[in-house]
Write a structure and sequence with these properties.
alpha+beta; 15% strand
Length: 210
């Protein structure tokens, strides 16, 4: 007997179980990944390679079962689409803004700002930091796991509006990232107002103002 995760809530997401008394759980993304590796090893995408790759993947998974580990990753198609659209737009708009700053040749004050995030899970912290790192004009210099705080290096820190916009952009990216890959509890968490940010550190003059 074969049962799938969307019918059996006790199974991990995107998986199926074979058997009733001592079921063997098959992780469908893992089977797809093993099949892709098999096709790459053969170097030719054919129906025969796909079929044999799928069979070999199932046999290996049944012969060498892996422990069931829930990483907390969920796939929400609409959330993934929203995140992709936002990243595409933000990369373009941020690139234009940074280009203007370069050619304007105006003095600017760089600083590191601390931005407290609402999700404390390692996976969501990592995905949010990766999303923020893809944006031109700022770079993640540190992520504190114990306080779920992301430290971002930005330009034009002399303008409070720019600093506030950078924080709101990170919080928006966190919300979109969690809505694309987070659990229901994490999605509810990012719907709450963010905490007050820590003090900004000036990287040009130092923290002591000297």
């Amino acid at each position: 007997m074969i049962s799938v995760s969307f019918r059996n809530k006790k199974l991990p997401p995107y998986s199926c179980a074979i058997g009733t008394r001592h079921p063997r759980v098959l992780d469908l993304p893992q089977l797809a990944w093993l099949t892709a590796i098999w096709v790459l090893l053969w170097g030719t995408l054919t129906w025969a390679n796909l079929l044999t790759g799928a069979i070999v993947s199932v046999v290996l998974s049944l012969a060498f079962p892996q422990p069931q580990v829930d990483l907390g990753l969920r796939l929400h198609p609409w959330g993934i689409l929203r995140l992709t659209a936002y990243l595409t737009y933000d990369m373009f708009s941020s690139g234009v803004r940074v280009t203007r700053q370069i050619f304007a040749e105006l003095p600017y004050r760089a600083a590191v700002i601390g931005i407290p995030l609402r999700c404390r899970g390692d996976l969501m912290l990592t995905l949010t930091a990766v999303s923020v790192s893809n944006m031109p004009g700022g770079s993640v210099v540190e992520v504190r796991r114990d306080t779920a705080t992301l430290f971002l290096h930005i330009l034009d820190a002399h303008d409070p509006a720019v600093v506030d916009a950078a924080r709101r952009s990170v919080w928006r990216l966190e919300e979109l990232t969690v809505c694309a890959f987070g659990t229901p509890d994490e999605i509810a968490r990012v719907g709450r107002p963010p905490a007050a940010p820590p003090e900004t550190r000036d990287t040009d003059r130092g923290e002591d103002g000297a």
